[in-house]
Each structure stands twice: as structure tokens, then as C-alpha cells.
Amino acid sequence: MALRRAFRVAPLVLLLLAVAACVPQNSAPKAGNAAAPTATDLTAPQPRTATYNCADGGRMTIENLGTSLRVIGPDGTIEDLPASPANQNSRFGIAHDAIVIDGRDALVMKGGKTPLTCTR
């Protein structure tokens, strides 16, 4: 009698083992926000041309020329800022004006004015 029951249950056990083998072990859904910036976004180089929205409501366009930036202000003024020091690509400035680029953010410093944060 026990042998007969074992033969009836065996196909069911084999079927359950086959199904269990097909289920991925790491099937939990991945958490994350698709809109959140990735590490690559934060360390990506400055694009050739980017528009920044500033905390004061203004907009500026920055053109990356490699060893310098061309900044077009909200009023249309154009200013070229060389890399400072010359061997890097995140700090640009001349005299009392400077821009520091950090990922998608730019800190704009003008002589005699409060520093302004802008984001692309």
C-alpha cells in the first residue's frame, strides 16, 4: 500500500521540483526611482552647450570650449572664462568672476554679488 502511494505522489513531487527550479532565485522587485540621477549623470562631463536655470529665476547658457567656458547671461552678455587652474575642467574664472561646475549644478560667483546656484 505504501509503495502504491509513493508511485502516485512521485510525479507530483517531480513536477513541483521542476517548477521550483524554473523560478529565479533573485525574483524580488528592484527598488529605485527612474527619475533619480545615477552616479554616471553626476560625474558626466559638461556637455558642449547646456542651459542652466538659476535660483534667482534667470537662465544662462554655458558653452564648453574645452579649456574655457563661454557664458551667455540672461541679458545676452557674453563672457569667456578660462579654466582656473589651467589643467582642470570644473573651475573657470577671471578676476572676480568664477563658475564652479559640479555634475548638473553650477555655482556662479560675480564680484560684489552673492553666489548663485544654477542647475541644468
Secondary structure topology:
Layout: H1 2-22, H2 39-43, E1 49-54, E2 59-64, E3 68-72, E4 78-82, E5 91-94, E6 97-102, E7 105-109, E8 116-119
Characteristic key phrases:
120 residues, Lipocalin, eight-stranded antiparallel sheet, elongated
Q: Can you describe this structure?
A:
It comes from Mesorhizobium amorphae CCNWGS0123. Keywords: Signal. The structure is a single chain. By secondary structure, the chain is an alpha+beta fold. The protein has a domain at 49-119: Lipocalin. The chain is built from two helices and eight strands; from the N terminus they run ααββββββββ. It has helices at residues 2-22, 39-43, and strands spanning 49-54, 59-64, 68-72, 78-82, 91-94, 97-102, 105-109, 116-119. The protein has an eight-stranded antiparallel β-sheet with strand order 4-3-2-1-8-7-6-5, with no helix packed on it. The radius of gyration is 29 Å and the shape is elongated. Mean pLDDT is 77; it is low at 13-19.
